[in-house]
Sequence to fold (628 residues):
Amino acid sequence: MTDTIDHPKETHAFQAEVSRLLHLMVHSVYSNRDIFLRELISNAADACEKLRYLALETPTLLGDDGDLAITLAADGDAATLTVADNGIGMSRDELIENLGTIAKSGTKAFLEAVGESGGKSSNLIGQFGVGFYSAFMVANRVVVTSRRAGSDQAWTWISNGIDGYEVHPATEAEAPARGTVIRLELNDESKSYAEKATVERIVETYSAHVPVPVRFVAVGEEVENLSDGSALWARPKSEITPEAYKEFYGNVSGQWDEPALTIHYRAEGRHEYSVLLFVPSMKPFDLFDPARKGHLKLYVRRVFIADDVDLLPHWLRFARGVIDSEDLPLNLSREMLQHNPVLEAIRKNVTSRLLSELAKTAESDPEKFAGLWEAFGAVMKEGIYEDAERRDELFRIARFKTTTSGEGTRSLKDYVAALKENQTKIYYILADDLARAEASPHIEGFKARGVEVLLLTDPVDAFWVRTALGFDGKPFQSVTQGASDLDAIPVSDEAEKPAEPEAAGIAGLVAKLKEMLADKVSDVRTSSRLASSPVCLVAGEFGPDKQFEKIMARHQGASPFAKPVLEINPHHALIAAVAARIGTDEAMVEDAGHLLLAQARIADGETPDDPADYGRRLARVLEKALGA
Ligand code: ADP
Ligand code: MG
Fold:
């Protein structure tokens, strides 16, 4: 595309989200503006690595300039800092696509978080990798000139970060032979970024271990090396400081938190490879993206190959870092990356290693592990559901809120160790949140007996409890499903022991309700599940849990498939009173029966199935009670 006549200067508006982001960035009083340089260096390094990879197949792309590097050039008088790389470069369309729109889910998540924080964005910027746009924190104007490798036309993209941007063909004089030059016209508060000492300090802090050399040059001075581009993971552990690990983590993850775990080792034997993995301490923003993509970077003998290969199972996608293989061929095709026995072996091994490190942390530092489980437990539980081979390992590290855990959490091992006399199952309740789980009438009888119940509130919970057979020989049992077998377990507190119900009257009420509600419930029975509530609804013995049904209904729009069972509390005064009206006040029994069913539905967070009918009956009963 040599013809510049077809492409006169064009101006474009930013995508709406970009404008908002830029506005926030520029107007935030964020103290650490330094981060812009890490972002630009990281992009430049990526560009060099992409070129290195493409050149494996098409060596001509490198031409006679195979010495990939990042050059920072400062001009104090002009107040400019330039970040240049001789990497892959961008075509005109790529400039527009990559710099004019927000493609990154992390950036969108950032804006959402800012929205939630009510505009208190100052710390947020530091927590998110906001990429290229961070340049506008320090620059009034950013001029990007780029030549895609192999192209004979270079393009210039210019923006003040407010109005939008313009794109026009670059003149040969200003264009790099290959790659990208980003010139920052520094704003008044940011002139120090044109000073060598400042640049040196930032590179030392944030970018000393990017795998591409970084150089610095000031006007009229010699070029100086700031970092040699040697791969951190290839160096012995003993030589690497915690700061260096942290800095590398920042570069490889785009996050600004501390890594919670750093796992660095070299595997030898059948396959040789180096692993440098991090478990973040903060949730990455794309954690629940439907694609469930991992983010490990694959290198082969220190050459970057790809960052979208599944090097770990989906349920460990929060891990960040690098795996560098000694054995793989460099010219791997996409298909070969998908089904490669070497990669399979590496994946299996690294998975085991990461799980064992997590298990070790759970033992040695429960508090730290609690934080990790809080952040990533919901993701790891996907593994319990879909990875039968790893289920036992995951059960060992899984932690749960329970009716007895208080502020802390419990492991399944703790749970089983505290089983009550005659208790043979691991009980759980599924709910949308903890408050609902704890308030549910279904767990009253369990509490009265001191029987611990797992409070499961992640959507994934409804799935794994169905496929997992049990733990330590004890099956998982929903407290809202099937007949509760609590009668064999003694009530722990004598004082709470309920009065004996009046058997005949209750049997009559059960029969009556069954007949009256036949089209709404599949059965009516008494229950030891309840203590202070008169009624609850449960799923049949073999039907799906009600919370599971609800989740499925939400996703598929299907209405709950099975009619529930209504359980009544024979010890409850209200139940006894209704039973006593049979034969004497049938109209009241009829109203009470329907109202009790509605109450059970409301306790499950649902609405009465016939609100108008409910209203009429409630009014009638109240009128009677108040003598109206
Ligand atoms: P991210 O790096 O997370 O993708 P950025 O906002 O930092 O997000 O960059 C957006 C995109 O712009 C990059 O994905 C890349 O395609 C492109 N880009 C940015 N800088 C360069 C560069 N120096 N060379 C080539 N492409 C670049
Ligand atoms: Mg980036």
Summary: The radius of gyration is 32 Å. The first helix runs from residue 16 to 27. The longest strand covers residues 139-147. The chain has a mean pLDDT of 88.
